[in-house]
């Protein structure tokens, strides 16, 4: 299907899941890329087509997340399933330091998002400061 799925398909919640999966793995400018594409997590060739992804995975049960059975392997039909946010957190490999700046990920410095995603609180705050600056029309200070 050249040019991507038909417009109606883009409204499916699974389409957002598919899109952000590909962003994390393939877009070096995505902020989650270091934890995915940056450490060799890929998307199977079949799943470059949203329809194949959707047929393989089926509809996402409400509140479930896409999870990889083996965290060191890529996204594919064999390695993926829908799980609750809690199951997904349990299955994550323990991360002790944040990838961007190496802050220690103590419980006090961990932001647990509603979708189960854990993030360095220091970096999350910095990201949001930049985002607010952008939103309010100031030029954000870009630090590496
Ligand atoms: Zn950090």
Task: Give a topology summary.
Elements: H1 13-26, H2 50-57, E1 64-68, E2 80-84, H3 85-91, E3 110-112, E4 118-120, H4 121-135
Antiparallel strand pairs: 1-2, 3-4
Bound molecules: zinc ion.
Strand content: 5-15%
Unreliably modeled segments: none
Query: How do the strands of the widest beta sheet line up side by side?
Result: 1-2
User: How many distinct domains?
Assistant: 2
N-C termini distance:
38 Å
Number of DSSP-assigned strands:
4
Fraction of residues in helices?
Answer: 25-40%
Find the structural class using helix and strand composition.
alpha+beta
Query: Helix count, per DSSP?
Result: 4
Shape: globular
| Element-level helix/strand string | HHEEHEEH
Summarize model confidence as the mean pLDDT: 85
- Give a short account of the largest sheet: 2 strands, antiparallel
Give the C-alpha Rg.
Answer: 17 Å
Unique ligands? zinc ion
Report on the structure:
It is a single chain. By secondary structure, the protein is an alpha+beta fold. It has two domains: 1-91, no CATH class; 94-144, no CATH class. Helices cover 31% and strands 11% of the residues. It contains four helices and four strands, in the order ααββαββα. It has helices spanning 13-26, 50-57, 85-91, 121-135; strands spanning 64-68, 80-84, 110-112, 118-120. The strands form two sheets. Strands 1-2 form a two-stranded antiparallel sheet. The protein has a two-stranded antiparallel sheet with strand order 3-4. A hairpin with a 5-residue loop joins strand 3 and strand 4. The longest helix is centred in the last third of the chain and has 15 residues, at 121-135. Bound molecules: zinc ion. The site of zinc ion has 7 residues, from helix 4. Zinc ion binds next to helix 4.
């Amino acid at each position: 299907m050249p040019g991507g799925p038909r417009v109606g398909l883009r409204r499916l919640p699974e389409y957002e899941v598919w899109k952000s999966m590909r962003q994390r793995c393939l877009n070096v400018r995505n902020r989650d890329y270091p934890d995915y594409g940056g450490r060799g997590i890929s998307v199977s060739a079949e799943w470059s087509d949203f329809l194949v992804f959707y047929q393989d995975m089926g509809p996402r049960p409400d509140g479930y997340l896409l999870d990889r059975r083996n965290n060191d392997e890529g996204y594919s039909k064999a390695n993926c399933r829908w799980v609750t946010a809690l199951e997904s957190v349990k299955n994550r490999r323990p991360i002790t330091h944040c990838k961007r700046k190496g802050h220690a990920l103590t419980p006090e410095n961990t932001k647990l998002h509603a979708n189960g995603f854990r993030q360095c609180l220091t970096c999350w705050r910095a990201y949001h400061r930049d985002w607010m600056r952008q939103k309010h029309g100031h030029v954000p200070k870009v630090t590496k």
